[in-house]
Structure formats: structure tokens, C-alpha cells
UniProtKB/TrEMBL annotation:
E.C. code: 3.1.26.4
The name this protein goes by in its record: ribonuclease H
Species the sequence originates in: Grus japonensis (Japanese crane)
Domain RNase H type-1, first and last residues per copy: 115-225
Repeat in keyword set: no
Length: 225
């Protein structure tokens, strides 16, 4: 399983199947070895969690207790936090008369010429609650080098980490004087910002509807590259 994400996904899904059938009112998601459980009440959480642990152990799966994390606090319907104001309208990209000069859509990584793959970087960011603190981590991965660059801190959300990862990738490419850079991200927000929003924000002095855009210092630095 360690060397096969597909097998890992299938085995963990099978291990969780009885929990999903027994507790059909819960929210239970997993991606390979990461599991997210959400329930309505505190008492339900303890009961379902104990059953979940027992079921995983029954399948012979090892549980890393040091990675358990309880995220957030009892909530209610509605907006809990406004992260940022993004551009509105039907077209989030550039207007027809504008040209994409700095960031262009790249082909899939496996379609890149072999001599250009060393200039491809994959970025990601995440956040977790540790005690009373929110900690984030940004990472950049180079498939050809099999090495990663990372940065971490506290007090910010995962969206901040996603943007910080782009900054890390640009730092790496500039320090080594790469002739080109292919950035691969799973975040639509980052992709749309690179393709068009940055130009709009720059023209509006890094504001949106009269308010400073979220993470403006990071975006300004990225736009200046």
C-alpha cells in the first residue's frame, strides 16, 4: 500500500464501508490515508470515532495517533469567515483584447518534452489546527529531482499556503536562473489569479471594491516576477 496509492484508496474505502452503512447521517470522506469525519453532536462524535478506529484496526491498518486533529469548534449554518473578495462577473479571466504574456496554460506534465520537465514544479499548501493555533505549510515538488522545498508558519489559512507555495516556486526558479517555469497547481484560485486576476488587481491598486485584496503582499511579489 505504501507504494501504490490506488491499492491504498481501495483498501481504506473498504475498511470504511461498514461505518458509512451503520452511521448514514455522518459525513465521512477519505483520500488514501487521510480521513475526515464530521458529525452533528459531541456525543455522536465519540461514538462514531471509537467505531471508526475499531473498524480500521480490524482491517489491520495502523493508526498514527500523533496525526489526529480536531478541526474547528461547534458550528452553525451561515458564513463563518470571509476569506477574500474575488472578481465578480461571468468571465474571471482577461478581456478578449488582452494577451496572456506572463502565465500561459501549460500542457499536462506527461506531455512536456523531456528536456523541459526539469523546469516543472508542483505546488500545494495545507493548514491544520494544533491546540489553539492554526498552522500552515507550503510545499513545492520537483518530479525530476525528487526533492521538495517547504515553508511553514502559523495564523494563516490553507489558501495562504497555496499562494506561498507559488512564491517558493518562483524563488527556486529565479535563484537557479531557469529559462522557463511550468507551474502545476490543483487550486483554481491560484490558476485564475496567474491567468488574469493579477492584472486586474494591479490596475486597481491591489484593491477589490475599495478594499485591499486578501494576501496582497504575496500577490504583489508574485506579479513583480
Amino acid at each position: 500500500m505504501k507504494n501504490s496509492p490506488t491499492i491504498c484508496q481501495i483498501v481504506v474505502s473498504e475498511a470504511l464501508s461498514n461505518i458509512r452503512k451503520t452511521y448514514d447521517a455522518i459525513m465521512l470522506y477519505h483520500y488514501m490515508d487521510d480521513i475526515l469525519l464530521a458529525v452533528e453532536t459531541e456525543s455522536s462524535l465519540s461514538r462514531v470515532f471509537d467505531s471508526l478506529v475499531a473498524e480500521l484496526q480490524r482491517y489491520g491498518l495502523q493508526i498514527a495517533t500523533e496525526k489526529w486533529a480536531r478541526i474547528g469548534s461547534p458550528s452553525r449554518p451561515g458564513i463563518l469567515e470571509v476569506i477574500t473578495d474575488w472578481p465578480e462577473g461571468k468571465d474571471f479571466g482577461m478581456s478578449p483584447e488582452e494577451e496572456v504574456t506572463r502565465a500561459e496554460e501549460a500542457p499536462p506534465y506527461n506531455k512536456l518534452p523531456e528536456d523541459e520537465k526539469p523546469y516543472a514544479l508542483f505546488t500545494d499548501g495545507s493548514c491544520r489546527i494544533m491546540g489553539k493555533h492554526r498552522r500552515w505549510k507550503a510545499a513545492v515538488w520537483s518530479p525530476t529531482r525528487r526533492v521538495a522545498e517547504a515553508a511553514e508558519g502559523q495564523g494563516e489559512l490553507s489558501q495562504f499556503a497555496e499562494v506561498k507555495a507559488i512564491q517558493l516556486a518562483l524563488d527556486l526558479a529565479e535563484s537557479e536562473k531557469w529559462p522557463m517555469l511550468y507551474l502545476y497547481t490543483e487550486t483554481w484560485m491560484v490558476a485564475n489569479a496567474l491567468w488574469g486576476w493579477l492584472q486586474q488587481w494591479k490596475q486597481s491598486n491591489w484593491q477589490c471594491r475599495g478594499k485591499p485584496i486578501w494576501a496582497a503582499p504575496l500577490w504583489r511579489d508574485i506579479a513583480a516576477r
